Amino acid sequence: MKHQRLPALVVLRVLLIAALTMSFCGWTPSRAGAQEKTTVPESQKAASPQESSAESKPKEAPEAEKQAPTGFKYIELKIDEAFGEFNKAVGNVIFYRVPLNAEQVKEAIAKGQIAEGKGIPLAVLWLLIGATFFTFRMNFINIRAFKHAILLVLGKYDDPDDEGEVTHFQALTAALSATVGLGNIAGVAIAIGTGGPGAMFWMMLAGLLGMTSKFAECTLAQIYRRISPDGRVMGGPMCYLSVGLDEQYPNNSFVSGLGKILAILFAILCIGGSLAGGNSFQVKQSLDAVAETIPLLKSYSWVYGVVMAFFVGIVIIGGIRSIARTTEKIVPFMCGIYILACLAIIVLKLDKIPDCFMAIIDGAFQPKAAYGGFLGVLVIGFKRAAFSNEAGVGSAAIAHSAAKTQFPTREGIVASLGPFIDTIMICTMTALVMIITEAYKDPQYANLIAKNKGAALTSEAMASQIPYFNYVLSVAVILFAYSTMISWSYYGERCWAFLFGDSQKVSMAYRILFLVFVVLGSIVSATNVLDFGDLMILGMAFPNILGVLLLSNRVKKELDSYWTRYKSGEFDQQAN
């Protein structure tokens, strides 16, 4: 079945409904004066990408010296104010805190270990519910198929004649390039600083559960993908939401209609997330890091934006095949740099390893660790899912849908390695460095923890052991940002094509728009515009998880059929 373009009228209706909903929620452009400072809720500040960037803000001038901005700065401020109002309205839903009433939490509150009024944000709870359900529903396929996943990535079962655009390894690196970033550096540091060493235990648990979420969504992406005559693949949540729910519930017009609405909603959110969180934020984040080494860029930031746009453009112009060829080289290199730096510190402190693991086990089930773990890792980790492992968000399913395979389950198993590499390997490296160096409890770094400056905390911890580590971190930040942008460009482009038609002209129009946002990201410092990306990406989890839950029986059926054939040795005979 060839993918059909959604009628423009349907798209316009959904946009109109969204606009009316935002209006009902109180979203209107701010009428405040140009000097008014936009206030961002604390819940959004904690999720803001800026907390994991260079994290240094210029000091404000005295009130008497402030002047009303004019020209470009005035336009930037007004846009920022409008996005701020939107962020408040939508953030109140996505970051609504579900109260905690567990006895150990109440006891911790009474002892002053936990601030009263805290809870789990709705988006985090939704991701956690989905990940837990999928893990049990698929009988812990994340553990059962781990060895098989490695063999698949190594190419043992590859068939170059299978339909698709990229290999298993290329699909995995393309997805990883969008997930491995400063969330691995900053988010983990804050989790350890908030909950102590025990938070690492909960971080690893979150990664294990996320493996099954990734398996389920990427299996569905393969089942319901569409391949055009020229070989281009259209796949991801927007396809299994619109087509899958219709096929699985043929006699239920409500579910069928809901699927189409969810697909359009997901596509709109993904486009917004790709242009903000997957683009402008990445440029600003890497620019801040490079400007510390090359101060001249602070005055000519647009030069950095143009250069970055050029290098992004020469890759994304070729689509997923060009992106995959790039990520299969960059991802192993950038992960290797960071892991080696962490291992160097661990080797220097090898005698502290036993005490380190004892601290993790002892602290894992203490009230503060449970709170800091779940609300430090599952809030700072799951809440920042787009910048961590993206399990449940659905974006990685777009990349994995392009893999060459005739077995959807096979690609789902490959995809499950993503959260393992991102969270259990790379994030654990950061956690071990934080614990071994004891930076998380050093009084001189308390202010960094209090202000959620995780990147700075990690940098200080490593610099205390390895001189000039800030240069290594700068290189890592540039690579992380660059690889994230090229992968998110593909996510946004596929969703754009889903809404407006899958043609070369439509795809090219989006790529040009994406490159414009690369340059804008280097000159626009609007905080709320960048926070908007967080909301869009986290918002993707709501339609995606709901759809995967409704289609979980289809995933289970596909898994059981494949696993029976695998255990019988059929695939090994074919491989030999």
UniProtKB/TrEMBL annotation:
Q: So which residues are the signal peptide here?
A: none
Query: What segment(s) does the record annotate as region Disordered?
Result: 33-67
Q: Which Pfam families match?
A: Na_Ala_symp
Q: Which residues form a coiled coil?
A: none
* Topology relative to the membrane: Multi-pass membrane protein
Q: Where in the cell is it found?
A: Cell membrane
- Annotated InterPro entries: Na/Ala_symport
The residue ranges flagged as biased composition, category Basic and acidic residues, are 54-66
Keywords on record: Cell membrane, Membrane, Symport, Transmembrane, Transmembrane helix, Transport
Provide a GO CC annotation, any one.
plasma membrane
Q: Which GO terms describe its molecular function?
A: amino acid:sodium symporter activity
Q: List, as start-end ranges, the regions of compositional bias called Low complexity.
A: 42-53
What coarse category fits the chief subcellular location reported for this protein?
Answer: membrane
Q: Mind telling me which residue stretches traverse the membrane in this protein?
A: 120-140, 185-205, 261-281, 302-324, 330-348, 413-436, 468-491, 512-530, 536-555
Entry's PANTHER family?
Answer: AGSS FAMILY TRANSPORTER, SODIUM-ALANINE, TRANSCRIPTIONAL REGULATOR, LRP FAMILY
Q: Which family does it belong to?
A: Belongs to the alanine or glycine:cation symporter (AGCS) (TC 2.A.25) family.
Q: What is this protein called?
A: Amino-acid carrier protein AlsT
Native species: Gimesia panareensis
